[in-house]
Amino acid sequence: MQNSTFKSILLVGSHANLYHRSMIESSNIPINTLKYKRKDPFAVDEPNQFIFNDIPIDFNGKYSLSELSFALSIIISQDPRFKQCLIIGDPTELIYQAFCFAKNDQNPNLIRQEIQIQPNKSKDAYLFLYPSGMVAHNIRKEISSLVYLLKKYKMNTFLIRDKNQSNIQILQNMLKRGEICFDLNILEVNGIERIISDQTAFTS
Length: 204
Hints:
Blueprint: E1 8-12, H1 13-17, H2 20-24, E2 31-37, E3 48-52, E4 55-59, H3 65-77, E5 85-89, H4 94-103, E6 125-129, H5 136-142, H6 144-152, E7 157-160, H7 167-176, E8 192-196
Parallel strand pairs: 1-2, 1-5, 5-6, 6-7
Antiparallel strand pairs: 2-3, 3-4, 7-8
């Protein structure tokens, strides 16, 4: 397993951003946020927007996996804060899926093609928040392409699904263990399960 030390945490999507304020109180490393804001249908000339740390970034494309990921890939390439981070979000949210595709420089429409040029090994990791109100079977169907992507690129991926503790309790426990440094070992706390390893054998 690679020795990943994260420089920051990124909360992507509406679900993850619910925990922003509580996580800041427990964290010693930077926590950035990214979410999607739909335009006001009654406003004139107001575009849809990505909101990165309260900074609006206009988005004029369609709310689709391919167009979101293309726009996000440009944003990611221009800001070093997107490097070497723990990316937390609800895997059923389209913006989280699109961010994962953009972060791995993968066109969603070409996901089944083999990797032609092996990319530099990323030190990112992904932490899924279990979607509320959905059964496991439905979740697996909805995020199958995302899981395929992360297995394809051998990205360390974890899932919170402890029914005895709230998500914020688990996240705060994780952050408390990261007071000195923050690496993959910090994710080995009660309630967090590894579902993909950077050593995972990939078969298409």
